[in-house]
Amino acid sequence: MIYRKSFGSRIIYAFILLILALLGLATLYPFIYTLSMSVSDPRAVMRSQIRLLPVGFTLDSYKLILGDSKVWSSYYNTLWYTVVGTSLNLIITIMGGYALSRRHFKAGAFMMVLITIPMFFGGGMVPNFVLVNMLGLYNTRWAIVLTAAASSWNIILTRTFFKSTIPDSIPEAAMIDGANDFQIFIRVILPVSHAIIALITLYAAVAFWNMWFPVLLYTFDTKLQPMTIYLRNILMFGAGEWGDDSEKAVMNAIQTRYTTIIVTIIPIICVYPFLQKYFVKGVMIGSIKE
Questions:
Q1: Cα dihedral sign, 54-270-96-126
Q2: Which residue intervals of 102-193 are DSSP H helices?
Q3: In-domain check, residue 290
Q4: Residue-wise pLDDT tens digits, 72-129
Q5: Does 79 lie in the same domain as 222?
Q6: pTM for this predicted structure
Q7: DSSP class of residue 189?
Q8: 17 and 146 share one domain
């Protein structure tokens, strides 16, 4: 029997598609507008003539930004924080989530309480700063990655994934065959956990890429600051030092703000199309009970 949608269902379906299309356009508009501002004629930018598409075309602002040595050092810091921080976060999250998902781990319930409490109550900015300073991590790269080395939400999400998809019989069978806990985790658990690994990697990478306030809190050396701090400085103080006269300086100060935004967000945006499918799996984790 072929199911045919009624006229009312088609109207509702079309209305939903229209709403989603409008939401998509509203989400896409700021990005297109920022990109257009970064490549348009500086005079058109200064006069606010851009509505959506570029007016004129020039890449002078990109030459100014990419010609600044601070951009490349900031990019290096961003990549370092993202790669090292994401790797550390992934190791702690996956191992912690797997351990907490096993029924024979007697301290699991108590550990879950300790992990859940920081989601609702935090020590605050001052205690965190004092702790980092007492540990000798202040004004170091490790102050950034170690303070964000684990996320309570990611650990709970990973625990739910392992608990709902990997029954205890699988590691028990591997243990009967002579495998130890480390071999079970590496050879049995990780090969079937690609979805949660990709999801946690994306969450952690985006968090570290966009991180800026902890950098301001735990460092003062400009050599340790990532692209987000460079972007903040451009947005707050502009780039008026670039230019031969006052008019050109003003145009540069306006346009380089948009250019810096594009330069900062493009790399992390390029990652999304490859890992987007795991967002759906992440939403569905734990939603079906058997």
A1: negative
A2: 108-120, 125-134, 142-146, 152-165, 169-176, 181-184
A3: no
A4: 999 999 999 999 999 999 999 999 999 898 888 888 889 998 888 888 887 788 888 9
A5: yes
A6: 0.83
A7: I
A8: no
